[in-house]
């Protein structure tokens, strides 16, 4: 009976939290970044808790979205989910607001493999490999400043979002939401490969500091 009650509570809370945790929420506790992996070819999208929270192991993810901003000729292969299951669910090429850009959104489907948060550490969400001939930039959308942010000419909802609940902290259920992006030059800590339960320091990607975009050029 206790199991049934807990399951019902989880489902109902996730439904209500999904409504609350939408792209563009201005206050939150979770930060995203994108960088190259150790092979210098694959790109990874990571989440990290900010300094205000200390997540327990009893978290549950209810919603999520990651939107990449690339050149309009961008293509990729080998999308691999590492924390949660992610699928491409929208793409817009050359909108009038940013005709040189493409906006590719990846939606969260299920918390399998589970997204495991740890204080001051990165968790890898998914990876992908850009086409060999692509030499443009790849960055995460800035929800509040991008020219294609909602409302836009396509009536779409690009943006970054992650909504989680923590059942294991004192004081009752805690809610964590996406806050902003962070970039290289910060102390990112070790990465957590959620599906493999291993920790490995990630190499530094080359970023355009003023834009937070990852370059495909190899480090010199």
Task: Provide a descriptive summary of the structure in words.
There is one protein chain. With 220 residues, the chain is mainly beta. The chain has one domain (2-214). It has one helix spanning 2-20; strands at 30-36, 43-49, 59-71, 76-81, 85-93, 101-110, 122-130, 138-140, 161-166, 174-181, 191-193, 198-200, 207-208, 213-214. Strands 1, 2, 3, 4, 5, 6, 7, 8, 9, 10, 11 and 12 form a twelve-stranded mixed sheet that branches. A two-stranded antiparallel ribbon has the order 13-14. Strand 11 (191-193) and strand 12 form a beta hairpin. The longest helix has 19 residues, at 2-20. The radius of gyration is 17 Å and the shape is globular. The model is unreliable at 2-27, 185-191 and 194-220 (pLDDT under 50).
Strand content: 35-45%
Sequence of secondary-structure elements? HEEEEEEEEEEEEEE
SS field, number of helical segments: 1
Uncertain stretches: 2-27, 185-191, 194-220
How far apart the termini lie comes to 61 Å
Mean pLDDT: 81
Taken together, the total number of domains comes to 1
Instruction: Work out the helicity level.
Output: under 10%
The best one-word shape is globular
Major beta-sheet overview: 12 strands, mixed
The total beta strand count reads 14
Instruction: Please give the radius of gyration in angstroms.
Output: 17 Å
Secondary-structure-based class equals mainly beta
Provide a concise account of the structure shown:
By secondary structure, this protein is mainly beta.
């Amino acid at each position: 009976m206790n199991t049934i009650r807990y399951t019902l509570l989880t489902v109902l809370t996730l439904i209500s939290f999904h409504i609350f945790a939408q792209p563009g929420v201005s206050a939150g506790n979770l930060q995203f970044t994108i960088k190259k992996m150790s092979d210098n070819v694959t790109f990874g999208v990571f989440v990290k808790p900010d300094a205000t929270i200390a997540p327990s192991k009893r978290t549950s993810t209810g919603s999520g979205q990651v939107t990449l901003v690339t050149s309009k000729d961008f293509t990729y292969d080998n999308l691999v989910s590492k924390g949660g299951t992610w699928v491409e669910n929208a793409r817009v090429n050359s909108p009038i607001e940013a005709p040189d850009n493409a906006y590719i959104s990846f939606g969260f489907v299920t918390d399998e493999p589970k997204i495991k948060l740890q204080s001051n550490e990165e968790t890898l969400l998914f990876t992908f490999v850009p086409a060999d001939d692509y030499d443009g930039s790849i960055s995460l959308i800035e929800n509040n400043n991008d020219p294609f942010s909602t409302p836009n000419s396509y009536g779409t909802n690009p943006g970054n979002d992650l909504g989680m609940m923590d059942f294991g902290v004192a004081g009752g259920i805690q809610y964590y939401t996406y806050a902003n992006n962070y970039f290289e030059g910060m102390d990112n800590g070790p990465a957590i490969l959620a599906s493999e339960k291993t920790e490995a320091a990630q190499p530094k990607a080359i970023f355009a500091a003023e834009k937070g975009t990852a370059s495909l050029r190899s480090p010199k």
